[in-house]
Amino acid sequence: MKQSARGFTLLEVLIAIAIFALLGLGSYRMLHSVLNTDEATRRHELQLREVVRAFAVLEQDLAQAGARPVRDGYADLRPALLGEAEPATLEFTRLGWRNPLGSPRSAWQRVRWQLTGSTLERQYWSVLDQAVDSAPRPQQVLSEVQNLQLRYLDDDGTWLSAWPPNEDGSDPQQRLLQLPRAVEVSFEHPRYGLLTRVLRLPDNPPKQNAAQAPALEGDGPDAGTPDEVPAT
Fold this sequence. Notes:
Number of helices: 2
CATH topology of the domain at 51-200: Pili subunits
Structural class: alpha+beta
CATH architecture of the domain at 51-200: Roll
Strand content: 25-35%
Largest sheet: 5 strands, antiparallel
Distance between the termini: 105 Å
Radius of gyration: 30 Å
Helix content: 25-40%
CATH superfamily of the domain at 51-200: GSPII I/J protein-like
Strand order of the largest sheet: 3-4-5-6-7
CATH class of the domain at 51-200: Alpha Beta
């Protein structure tokens, strides 16, 4: 005797659909969580890479700092390294400015690091001894920075909040050429909190040569104009 074939009842179909729906919902939530975690990891990695890059660029600048004072747009001499406390600003002359196009300019470069709003900026001039209209060119290095602080280590091992140090009876020319042994950089980042690095300057910093040096005494008729330096 043949048995009649049976299909699924409506209740069984509804139960199967409910089970598949629960499995699909669980899989979607798991996949969504994995994607969110991956996105957060990538975002954290990018922020960490930007912080590391900012310190690396500043360290590279300071590693090539040299004893080369400059004149500003009003023919006043500025020290080879000038550090101001309020607001925290670091300005100095560095060697090693690449010149792949062979432009008629010096291998020295005047740079300034400062906090503009919440952005850590690196500014540089296209000339060393500046004219009145010589404006720096800004480069944004790191965003979301707060409370930038700078300190300078002198030859006696003392940390100073500004540079050059104010020493009574010191030689003015030597003061223009003097460089600290190291610079301490501190700032606050919203993700990593307070970050502090001590960056060492060269033990034997490069010196200016006669062709590139500004007149350290007196004001000549060409004071305040860019140096004519042969291409390097």
